[in-house]
Amino acid sequence: MAKHKNKIQLMKGEAGFHYLALVVMILLMLFCVVPLVLMLTVSLSSEASLVKGYRFIPSAWSLDAYLFMWAKRATILRAYGLTIVITIVGTIISLIMTSMFAYPLSRKDFKPRNVIAFILFFTMLFNGGMVASYMVWTRLFHIKDSLWAYLLPGSLMGGMNVLLVRNYFNANIPYSIIEAARLDGAHDWTIYSKIMVPLSKPIMITIGLFSALGYWNNWTAGIYYINNPKLYTIQVYLKKLMDSIQFLKTTDLSNEAVLLAQRSLPTESARMAVAIIALIPVLIVYPFIQKELIKGMVVGGVKG
Amino acid sequence: MTRIVLQDVTMIYPFEKVSGLFDRKQKKLILEQQKNMPYTSNEGVIALQHFSSVINDGEFAVILGPSGSGKSTLLRIIAGLERPTLGKVYFDDEEYNNVKPEDRDVAMVFQNYSLYPNQSVYENISFPLQVKHTPREEIDAEVKKICELLGLSRKLESLPQDLSGGEKQRVAIARSLIKKPSVLLLDEPFSNLDVIMRRNLRTQLKKLHQAYHTTFVYVTHDQYDALSLAEKIIILKDGIKQMDDRAAEVFLHPVNRFCAEFVSSPIMNIFEDVEVKKDSFSLFGKQYQLTPSRKKHLGKEKKVTVGIRGSNIHAGKEGIEAVVDYTEVIEADLIIHAKIDDQRFVIAEKYKEDKETRYLQGQKIYVTFDEDCFHLFDENGDRI
Asked: Within its chain, how far is the Cα of B151 from the centroid?
């Protein structure tokens, strides 16, 4: 009888934990989803209805923001194309660099690995700061107003990603496989390209996604280094658009031209529409790689 | 084919560095464990001590020893995966200490197979040839040939995860042999396999050695593997070479008590503190003569350790009275555990299912010892 009671109590405790977990997860999900829904509905609201504030169900629906975007389609499509190219190229380069850096760090017979690892991880905590970086990139590497501005600064290779890949190599690929390959006559490039990389698909996908998201969402590089509007990515374009709208809003209304422009512009809804447009590719790709992403994050973090 | 010469090879693994502010207890424990290893120096744990040996062209050498005796270290030194702390390694009179594994023309079969999980059986086997940029037709022909020899022709498209243990090990052997290495190293390749698979693979390995005439170096702790495969056996204990001789010689004339007990199939019975009087020693009340050379070696020593294999003790109708404790059948042998007074020993007979071989617990039997087959050891365990 006592046993039976205990069992019921335990089950109650378990059920309580499950309900609590469910509530927490629902809250977390709402924190993520609500802004997205709001963003969508605001982008579909008429500008006049937004004066009173944002609403989940707009008092007046309107496609003005998207029509405004359609009118600017040439610029937006160019920015879109550029963002896609930068994301793909940047991700590929980033994956190659990260995995190539991680491979020697995972090799027990590579003696300076601890020193190099220290230097790498040091940069995770300390760096030169924005001004110094800006001067190095613009004066030494002359990346201003070129596509390199999106690819090189800060996003080519991160210490954290190298750490994840190195841990994956150490924890999931038996060292004897590397030794077997060496005895089969394979040199380091063959071992890296034919064995290590194909065996590291989950972590590569994870790092690839981190990197791709980083490139896709990167607007700071454009603000710092790009003046040529033809080289705007979608995020930079969005930022510039927001800034322009802000400028119009805060400027003296006695100026007739500004007043006109302000009246004809779908300001708030246009901001949200651009954000929605920028988000679409991520929303499409994410469900397909979600499994691998989680797997990679778990296996990469198993061992320190 | 290559002649391998190992000259005064010593391997010291540095003590593991335990850093960090935490886990002080664990740090202390690890250091204590390392210090308690059989041989340590100020620098670290000595895995191999002043080892010298010659493995000739095309020879099948077996390195035999218990766990932790340094046999895998020795193999890794030959492979180039470890660099000896002291001593030299020569391949055909050329010093190889600083030659990388990939440049040594050696192949190795690992205990855990170490197949490439992302590659099919065909890709695994052909990998060493692909690395050398061998023409595709030649690769196809070589893979076909070796797969027929090892019975893998139907598994070429399979991935390693779909293979049984025996198949995986055959793929590993095929991969190592396809590039026709000068030296093939095998690190306890059959220890994960069942008895029948081991027996089959032992036969296949012997055939492969005859077919390829490559120098084979095989590491094992299993004396059956050693005795059935080896032309030469090297016995190691705690990193020190105990014996290095032909397989028959190791079996018939073990140089010390450790070798006698380690290579003891059938089981070697050991009787300690046997008294020596003048020209003979006495065992269970019976005198056995010492040869002049043994007597000379013995000097003034009054006690010896006597060893005799179970197959050299016979149960019959005459001899010293003994009592049967219990019996067991191991492969083709009937093992009789018996005792005289309180001294236990083992008799190994060929198993026959008839009345004479049925021994019951407590039954009296009469035993005789083959006088020529006694092994005598002094107090240090060295052969007399």
From this structure: 27
